[in-house]
Amino acid sequence: MLAPVLFFLFAAVAIAASIGTLLARNPVNSALSLIVNLLAVASLYLTLNAAFIGIVQVLVYAGAIMVLFLFVIMLLNLEATPVLEAIDKRILAGYAGGTLLLGAITYLLARGLGALPTFEIAESAAATGTPRALALNLFTTYALPFELIGLLLLVATIGAVMIAKKRFV
Amino acid sequence: MEPITLNWYLALSAVLFIIGVLGVLLRRNAIVILMSVEIMLNAVNLSLVAISQALGETSGQILVFFVMSVAAAEAAIGLALVIALFRRKTSVDVQTLSLFRR
Q: What are the tens digits of pLDDT across the range B61-97?
C-alpha cells in the first residue's frame, strides 16, 4: 500500500515548508516556502482523491495568489530583517499565547481523536472528488452562493485598486 | 502498514493551523503575517476536504471552493493595504502602526 507513505511524505513536506515560511528572514524566501507548502497540501488533496480541489489549489493558490505576494514583495523592495529582532514584551506575549494555544489544541486532539469514529478514506471517494460531482451540486444547490462569490470578487478587485491608488491615502 | 484514516488528516490540519497562528503572533512583517493567514486558511481547507471525502459528500469541497475565493479576495485587499501602508510609513513592520495610540 503506497498511500500511507505518500501521506507522511507530503505531511512532512507541508509542515517543514510552513515552518520555513515562519522562520525565513527574507520575505521572498517566506513566499517560496509557502509555495512548497501549498503544493504539498495540493498533493494531500490528491491522496484524498479530491482531484478537482487539488488542481484548483495549484492554479489559484500556488499560481495566482502567490504570484500576487511575490509581486508585492518585489514592488516594495523589502530588505531581510536583521538577525536579532529586539525582544520586547509583545514578542514574549506572542510566544506565550502560541504555546498556550498549542497546548490547548494538542490536549483537545489527544482527547478528541480517539473518540472520533475511524473513517477510512474509501476508494469510492474518488466519485465525490470529480469536477462532475462538484459541479452538479455547485450549480444547483449552491447556485446563489456561487453568484455572491462572483460579486465579492468584483467588490474586492475594485476595493484593492482603490486602496492601492496613490491619491487615496 | 495500516491505511491512513481521517484522524491523521485532522491532526496534520491542526498542526498547520497552529503554525499559522504562531506566524501571525510572532512575525512583524505585514506580508509574512498575511502569508500565515493563508497557511491557516489552507489548514482548515485540508480538514474540510478530508471530512468531505470520508463522508462521501461534495458539500465540504464546495465550501473549500468558496474559502479559496474569499482567500483570493483577502490576499488582494490585504496586499493593497500593505502597499498603502508602505507609502505612508516606508515600512511594513506592524510595530510602526501606532496611529490610534495617542
A: 999 999 999 999 999 999 999 888 888 877 778 777 7
Contact residues for A34 (Cβ-Cβ < 8 A; gap 6+): A17, A18, A21, A66, A69, B35, B38, B39
When computed from its CA atoms, the radius of gyration of chain B, rounded to whole angstroms, is: 17
Cα(B30)–Cα(B37) distance, integer angstroms: 11
Q: How many CA atoms lie within 13 A of A102 on its CB side?
A: 15
Asked if B34's CB is within 8 angstroms of A149's CB, the reply is no
pTM here is 0.86
Residues 48-87 of B with CB under 8 A from A: 49-50, 52-59, 61-62, 64-66, 68-77, 79-84, 86-87
| Inside any domain, residue B69 | yes
Out of 3.20.20.70, 3.40.50.150, 1.20.120.1200, 3.90.550.10, which CATH number does the structure's domain A1-79 have? Answer: 1.20.120.1200
Contacts of residue A95, Cβ cutoff 8 Å, sequence gap at least 6: B25, B26
pLDDT single digits (tens) B40-60: 999 999 999 988 888 888 889
- Whether residue A98 and residue B22 make contact (CB cut-off 8 A), yes or no, is yes
CA distance B76 to B23: 19
Enclosing H/E stretch for B100: none
Q: Identify the CA nearest to A145 among candidates B44, B64, B75, B50.
A: B64
What total of structural domains would you count in chain B? 1
Q: Is B28 helix (H, G, I), strand (E, B) or coil?
A: coil
